[in-house]
Amino acid sequence: MGFDEMDVDTIWMDGEFQDWDDAQVHVLTHGLHYGTGIFEGVRCYDTADGPAIFRWDAHLDRFYESAKPYEMDIEHDREELTEATMELIRRQDLESCYIRPVAFYGYNSLGVSPKDCPTQVAIACWPWGTYLGEDALQKGVEVMVSSWRKHSSSQIPTNAKTTGLYVNSMLAGEEARRNGYTEAIVLDKEGYVAEGPGENIFMVKDGELYTPALSQSILDGITRQSVIEVARDLGYTVHDQATISRGQLHTADELFFTGTAAEVTPIRQVDNVEIGSGTRGPVTEEIQQTFFDLVEDPSDEYADWFTYV
Questions:
Q1: Same structural domain, 10 and 118
Q2: Whole-model pTM?
Q3: Domain ends where: 126, 149, 183?
Q4: d(CA 258, CA 263)
Q5: Catalytic, out of 115, 161, 189, 205
Q6: Integer Rg of the chain from CA
């Protein structure tokens, strides 16, 4: 569904609420030409106690931390961004939605150096359903290992959620879709499993969970962190510093993606090789169900994960 089909009409930008169609930037904006921006993806869930933003504080932490390698000065503090986001949700009467905070170097000059370019900040919220397809959460998705490799953290800071880095993600994802798959898996420069274009990945083998280490140039996903905690609370052993080879994907009992958009999505095939029974496995199902249960009706155990609107 495109934005024009959605019932959304307001964006917060540089300290002001604006009509959706008026939130624009100059064509010579630095971030447009060089990818010099940072962003977050956050979900607000319609919980039993009303709309609540999931892991908002953790997302804000990463937002400000992502700006540091680029010496980007975000003049708006946490309280202002929080109130702006909540007001956007209220104004548009959204019970559940996706939230996109973004900061980028704006319009002033177009040398590669962003010196003297202002930092612009915007937040938008809109309804967004299942990211990888309506049936994906139950049936799983078919993926391919991309020919595009993930860049190393010695080349570009991979712990920052940088707009320009997602060219790599776009190339991998579109390659997969051209070849009839739903999504891609990207390997690191050494040929080990890194992540999906916009998701972290977990492997289940003999009842234990494995997910690539942060040192393998992956993003420190907040849903990844949450699933690790949930899985351990359920009694599973989680190896969160794992090195996973491409071949191990094919022999896994189960695989699944995690991410703000993807949530917990099973993987049923990799490169036309059926994973496990070729559908959502029991470990994935338990973790997925626990995750959705807690975002629909948060328990005291995870209460600090939610910021109520």
A1: yes
A2: 0.95
A3: 126
A4: 5
A5: 161
A6: 19
